[in-house]
Amino acid sequence: MSVDRVERESYILGLLAKDGSLSVAALSKDLGVSEVTIRASLKALEERGLLERTWGGARASSSLDVLERARVNEPEKDRIAAAAASLVHDDDRIMIEAGTTTAQIVRHLAGRTGVQIVTNSTLALSYARLIPGLEVILTGGQFHRDSESMVGSVAIATIRRFNARIAFVGTDGFTFDRGMTTQFAGGAEIIEAMRERAEETWLLADSSKYGRAGFVSVLGLTDLTGVITDDGIGEGSLEVLQQIAPTVRVV
């Protein structure tokens, strides 16, 4: 396919948000333009701080990880977050792990009262500060810019001081045999700590995450209370998922 500059840049950013890196040769073939044109586009995007060029390609910058990843599958993520928020009651106690889908839960809690939230997500905090009726405890810890999260021993110690009814967690990928996985070991430790302190643990993941395995294994699907995903998941994949996870909600 051949596209104009704006469409080409949008495609590049979307691909980086999904995969984290790309090659000039593959982009040239996919978009039907020369490698010289692709390099010019990458240079322009790098100058705007939206990516970092590498030998033969590019990788996502920290700002892209947060801003552009949130826009990938945005309608699906919003439906998933709304379904998760429907599980939360007035005067509830919940934990929200950092992620572009999990942070959206907060936006759907407008109108709830007395909800106490423990989170390591600075993105979730930015939403919660605008909603009266929510009490937010942000963990301390080391700031991880790529995920807009607080991690490390201080964050884990904070989480272990509290008890919650539900923990909402995200993932970089999940499969029937490897369960939840992530690219970031620090994030895996946060998820494990939240599961220890919550009565229920729900995984929020759009269908594009199914079948992908990250670097670090976190939890098996049987360790969860349930999974909330979108209707883009294939029928065969859904059947397998339903056989393993205790509960699967498709929105």
- Approximate shape: globular
Just give the CATH class of the largest domain: Alpha Beta
Number of strands: 15
Mean pLDDT, to the nearest integer, reads: 90
Indicate the proportion of strand residues.
15-25%
Percent helix: 25-40%
* CATH topology (fold) name of the largest domain: Rossmann fold
User: Ends: how far apart?
Assistant: 32 Å
Give the helix/strand class.
Answer: alpha/beta
Order of helices and strands: HEHHEEHHEEHEEEHEEEHEEEHE
Largest sheet: 7 strands, parallel
Q: How many domains make up the coordinates?
A: 2
The CATH architecture term of the largest domain is 3-Layer(aba) Sandwich
Low-confidence stretches: none
Global Rg:
19 Å
What does this structure look like?
The protein has 251 residues and is of the alpha/beta class. The chain folds into 2 domains: 5-67, Arc Repressor Mutant, subunit A (Orthogonal Bundle), CATH 1.10.10; 73-250, Rossmann fold, CATH 3.40.50.1360. The protein is 36% helix and 24% strand. It has 9 helices and 15 strands. It has helices spanning 5-19, 24-31, 35-47, 62-67, 74-85, 122-128, 153-159, 185-197, 235-244, and strands at 21-23, 51-54, 57-60, 93-96, 115-119, 134-138, 142-144, 149-151, 164-169, 173-175, 179-182, 198-204, 216-217, 226-229, 248-250. A 7-stranded parallel sheet has the order 6-5-4-9-12-14-15, sandwiched between helices. A hairpin with a 3-residue loop joins strand 10 and strand 11. The longest helix has 15 residues, at 5-19. It is globular and about 55 Å long. The mean pLDDT is 90.
